[in-house]
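User: Can you write out an input/output pair for a complex, sequences first and structure second?

Assistant: Here is one pair. Inputs:
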Amino acid sequence: MAEISTEGKGGKHKGKSKKVSTRVDLTPMVDLAFLLITFFMLTTSMLKPQTMEIAMPSKDKVDLSKIPPLKNSLAVTVILGKNDKIFYYFGALKDTKTGIEAEVKTIDFGPNGIRKVLLDRNRAVVDKVNDLRKQNLNRQISDDTLKARVSREKGVKDAPMVLIKATDDSSYKNLVDILDEMMICNIGKYAIIEITPEDLDKIKTMNL
Amino acid sequence: MPKVKAKRKSTWVDMTAMCDMAFLLLTFFMLTSNFTQKEPIQVNTPSSISEIKIPEVNIMKIEVDKEGKIFFGIDGQDKRISLLEKIGEAYKMNFTAEEKKEFSLITAFGVPMEKMKSFLSLKPEQRDLKENALGIPSDSLNNQFKDWVRAARAVNKDLKIAIKADQITPYPKIKNVMNTLQDLNECRFNLITSLEEAPKNL
């Protein structure tokens, strides 16, 4: 430091100042910069978490008589049981008119499990949605139209309605997984509802 | 014969270019970074194909751990202070300015109201200890969680609710949280998940 400050002083050089190299050693600066980079790299979270939006029915009392009843042929009931097992049946558990009991089947998660069942059930909508997606890929329709038309397709009158009933033995992962299947299978109409005692009795007798 | 004399080369390397690059990267990281937030508990979220990103502001985060303990937090330091004042009114508790300041720095907490004062007097590193991660009571007799949500909603109308729960959290615990939210007429919420690739060829 002292050398630098004394340098241009005095008439030793007789007016002709010595040429000082303008080169500065940048090594410490680079060291510092990399240190900071490392710090910022380690503390940042690049990936933002994803979310799944879900709307639950409000608890306000509604006049049930005003809502058209769900057609039995469209209903699919999915019960989430213990150890990642799923029970499902179509229609009502016991038809009030005919008294025919629905056949309750057991299945698990995964591409060959519940997904296959739901896809088969929802084939008409799935095909239409796939078709729309293809058109979107080929730039025939815009992203906005795709969105609007997909949601319209999902809400068609004869699309299946999935009733999700979770037992107390199921876990949160099961719930998210089944909601995920709804999205994968393009099911627009689904609801998470309380399990009924009849359903519980039924799966108890199936005891696996 | 003239001897071939190796020319002495200087070991000096020009650092300018490297320095430029290092600072460029540094600037990039500084501008894009949003710091990982400290969370009181470790949560393994389940995965889904949903690609909706969670907003960064106006978010009410409800974390549920494996055993079903509830942790709660909102963003914005000034909002947190008004939240504490609001909940203090409901529980007839007065908080000092220091306690409010401490509270405004906590991203998420999980203590019952009775222990709030002693929790705030702890050092930040002590708050993360296991014995201080008690969870907010949410049973029907003593539903403090409900009061927190109500107070947070009163403080900030635009809050979006995000639930972050562990994969193996039993369903009844989640049901309880959802029922409480439904009771308060909060019927739309987000479930935080990690990304999973969507299956092709359906």
